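Subject: sequence -> C-alpha cells, single chain

Hey, anyone have a minute? Need the predicted structure for the following. Not urgent.
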Amino acid sequence: MQSSLNDWSASSIGSPELAEKLLGTYREEGLEGFMDVPYGFAALAYNAAGVATKAVEYAKRAEELILLKDGEWAPNLRIWKELLKDPKGHWSYGRRRG
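Reply:
Had a minute. Here:
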C-alpha cells in the first residue's frame, strides 16, 4: 500500500481510499506509535485528490506524532509544515485528480 501511495506516476493507484485502508492496517496491527507514516500518506493522498481540508487534518496528525516521537529535528516534519502552510500551493495538490 505504501509503495502504491508513494508512486506519483500517471498509472499510480494511490488514492484516499487506499490511504484509509493503510490507516486501518496500522491500527489493526497495533502500530499506533508509528501512525505518523499512514497519516502522512493520507495527507498527500487527499491533497493529490484536491481535498485540502482532509489533507490538512491528516498533516496535522502526522506533524503532532512526529513531534512526539522524533522531535523538531525530524526530517519529515518539514514536509507536513509545508503542506500545512499552503495545501493548495503544495506540489501534491491536484496531482491525482481523475
